[in-house]
Amino acid sequence: MKGADIVLGVVIAAALLPIAYAAVFYGIPSHTGFTALRPLARTILTVMFNKLDRLAWTASPEGVTSVLWDYRGVDTLYETMVLLTAIMGAVAVLHTRGVDIVKRVSLRRSALSAILDRTSRVVVWLTLIVSAAMAVNGHLTPGGGFVGGSALAVVPVLLVAVFTALLLPALGFRNVRMLRVRMAALLTLITVVTVPLTLGGYFFQNQPKPTSRFPGYPPFFPGGVPLGGTLILLNIIEFVAVGMAFSIAFLYLTAGEGGEGGGE
After folding, report:
1. DSSP character for 33?
2. Residues 6+ apart with CB under 8 A from 151
3. Taking the complete model, does pTM exceed 0.85, yes or no?
4. DSSP output for 168-227
């Protein structure tokens, strides 16, 4: 490393240090210091599971899910559509049709050791369970549909790492099929958030509102467990949509292995 590079690094660090100090300890350029909640955050945390004010609550104790799918649900819907557009663009650019290699899968798997084979099976099932739990419990604890869907997409990654891409078509991981599942999930999402409009309510309405005739979605499971109205449904739908989207992208990245393009 040259002496000039060292001097430049020291100068840059010296210039950034006071800016970082001011940002952390004085809240510059943020609205408040790091020890205080901003007014908007305080309002959301106060009403999101306030049983005494059910005209403003989301029926969910999880703040992130409440914000993403209730207070700014339309924005989250647009983000989901952006991901859909990106995946469809990737499919349009990368789509190829390869030879059928399903019959070659058994030859590849027979070459694996029993330890690697059995261990990978356990890890795959654990990943499926954990990812589903993230989505189903996303209205109660940190997680949600996007996080769970991202974890779900680890499954095809693991299968390719252990068995190569030859196994995926045999298990039903085909791009066209998964794209259809993703489209069905998005249509279901649109249906859930549009139903209130047909019953005198608002687009994306979750719980009752003063000027709406729509009574809102059920806030609790039988027994009093918080349901979050639409929040658990939207998390599960997003779980499927995101899991399929990332899986499709990954399968196209591995399309060159064995001459298989992942199409049907």
Report:
1. -
2. 127, 130, 131, 134
3. no
4. HHHTT--HHHHHHHHHHHHHHHHHHHHHHHHTT--TT--S--TT-S---S--B-TTS-B-
Residue 162 CA to residue 221 CA, distance in Å, equals 40
Gap between the terminal Cα atoms of the chain: 53
- Domain segments of the chain as ranges: 60-259
CA-CA distance, 62 to 49, in Å (whole number)?
8
> Residue 253 class from Cβ within 10 Å (0-12 exposed, 13-18 middle, 19+ buried)?
middle
> pLDDT of 137-163, one tens digit each?
999 999 899 999 999 988 888 887 777
- Measured between alpha carbons, how far is 179 from 183 in angstroms, rounded to an integer? 6
How big is the chain, counted in residues?
264
Cis preceding-peptide flag for 226 (omega within 30 of 0): no
CB-based burial label for 40 (10 Å; 0-12, 13-18, 19+): exposed
Q: What is the mean pLDDT of the chain?
A: 81
Alpha helices in 95-174 (DSSP H): 105-110, 114-136, 145-152, 154-163, 167-170
**CA nearest neighbour of 155 among 121, 180, 181, 183:** 121
- The residue with tokens 């979750």 is 206
**C-alpha–C-alpha distance, residues 49 and 22, integer Å:** 35
Determine the 3-state secondary structure of 40 from DSSP.
helix
